[in-house]
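batch job 7 of whatever, protein = Xylose isomerase
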Amino acid sequence: MSTQFFDGIAPVKYEGADSTNPMAFRHYNPDEVVMGKRMEDHLRFAVAYWHSFAWEGGDPFGGQTFIRPWHPQDDMDRAKMKADVAFEMFDLLNVPFFCWHDADVRPEQGNFADNLATLNEITDYIGEKMQSSKTKLLWGTANMFSHRRWMSGASTNPDPDVFAFAAATVKSCMDATHKLGGENYVLWGGREGYETLLNTDMGQELDHMGRFLNMVVDYKHKIGFKGAILVEPKPQEPSKHQYDFDAATCIGFLRKYGLENEVKLNLEQGHAILAGHSFEHEIATATTEGMLGSIDMNRNDYQSGWDTDQFPNNTPEVALCYYHILKSGGFTSGGTNFDAKLRRQSLDAGDLIAAHVGAMDICARGLKAAAAMIEDGGLEQALSDRYAGWQKDVSKNMLASDLESITNRVLSENINPEPRSGRQEILENYVNRFV
């Protein structure tokens, strides 16, 4: 039975680049083949349950602006109504995946036993809905940052009882994700950091975080969960400093605690910006080290100092991201999750559909541009030309040599190199040919 929330909105179809219909895809054609694979299978779109359905329209300076039929989100009847609306939207958009935190799908009960009961009840209900929908679960996760119990962290909390509550919460969410056939499990440590070093034992907190993640991996294998375990970097906000600062920091952390073969990264564009990076940089860092799992595709307002989680609309940025993803072989269990929310003035149900339509189109345009650049080979040729000197035997031998031998060669051959152009503007112009 329809909830009537999306009444009057038809299923979104592909109409081509000339369409002026704001509720139609202009570039995203799920069946279009790009580099030998269907576009839907490349992009693996997922709707974020939290921003699309749980978020009430607040910002750091103001409260709720969205008035939804399932507000307040404090009982199971409204939780089930929210699930009904979610699956209506999944079907309208024809998306293959969705994602959730436990706090998105069930009301907070104030204690673990009741949280567990309501989580099991709502995920059973969601499982029934999945039986008649094409939309599957890309990943589940635990919200261990919103409730006041998490104010000093979860696995890094100085109170061992909070660590225990966190462990039980993650177990319950892994069980629910496994039950629903989720393809990944994500951990984002929003409070896993500090507000001040005056009251923080950083070494102990990092060790506890590493031990906690090892427990997660052990439990994954115990229950036979075949999906990937992913961690999501973010430098700050809500904490002043978070231990999962960026991709490079997380990779170092995983190697320190022996997890580099068990855990990969879920990267977000907005978090990259907060860390002072581009999304392209974070993806390239992860793919270079074989650590990319999945992505949260959104953008930040460059004039704001917080994570604004806007829907993507910059084709060149998106194209360069998918360029590195395609070069690395593409997603396996991961995908493109829209960790993005409406502006708090965008009140209507139609705004929610239109935002996803635009974002999916931008990603499709970026994917096609990335594939065209790879097939053309211009960037690869430019890299090959720039590093061509390292293909010579004398250069390869130098890496196995020592400082004294290299110095003797510089003197004997009178090596005095002249700088060579990096041709950055030419390459930027090249990218713009495809977007």
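notes: Residues 33-376 form a domain with the TIM Barrel fold (CATH 3.20.20.150).
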